[in-house]
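Long-time lurker, first post. I've been practising inverse folding by hand and with some scripts of my own, and I keep getting stuck on stretches where the structure tokens seem ambiguous. Below is the full token string for one chain I'm working on. Before anyone asks, I'm not after the true native sequence, just a reasonable design that respects the backbone. If someone could post their per-position residues I'd love to compare against what I wrote down in my notebook.
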């Protein structure tokens, strides 16, 4: 039986490899580092709202990241367009916890595969 961490790691690896050849790979890598910090600072709802507001089209790093983190946590790729963030407080906290746990793997693979350096986040 696979662990939850293994599931997160596998989906994060597939997602980062998919983005590796796209023109916005570095920006996506930066988002991998920024997402958990933003969630801890502002909460999941505000972070998702910010990512949605930054989407210029369906091919943006913000859109891709939201799709990928959703798939990693067992949601569909359009989870952020629905009512999932408006559930009970228990469901919201559980989703936040799962998103943070999955985001660790996205950060690791962004460093390893996309060669994103956390020290250069301001550039």
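-- Answer (accepted) --
I ran through it position by position. Result:
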């Amino acid at each position: 039986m696979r662990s939850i961490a293994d599931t997160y790691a596998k989906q994060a690896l597939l997602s980062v490899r998919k983005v590796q050849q796209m023109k916005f790979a570095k920006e996506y890598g930066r988002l991998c580092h920024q997402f958990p910090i933003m969630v801890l600072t502002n909460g999941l709802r505000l972070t998702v709202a910010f990512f949605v507001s930054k989407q210029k089209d369906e091919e943006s790093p913000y859109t891709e990241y939201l799709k990928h983190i959703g798939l990693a946590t067992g949601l569909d790729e359009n989870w952020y367009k629905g009512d999932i963030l408006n559930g009970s407080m228990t469901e919201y906290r559980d989703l936040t916890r799962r998103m943070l746990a999955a985001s660790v793997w996205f950060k690791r693979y962004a460093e390893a595969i996309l060669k994103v350096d956390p020290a250069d986040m301001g550039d």
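A couple of notes from the structure itself: The chain has a mean pLDDT of 91. The helical segments are 4-19, 25-42, 44-54, 61-72, 89-112. Happy to go over any region you disagree with.
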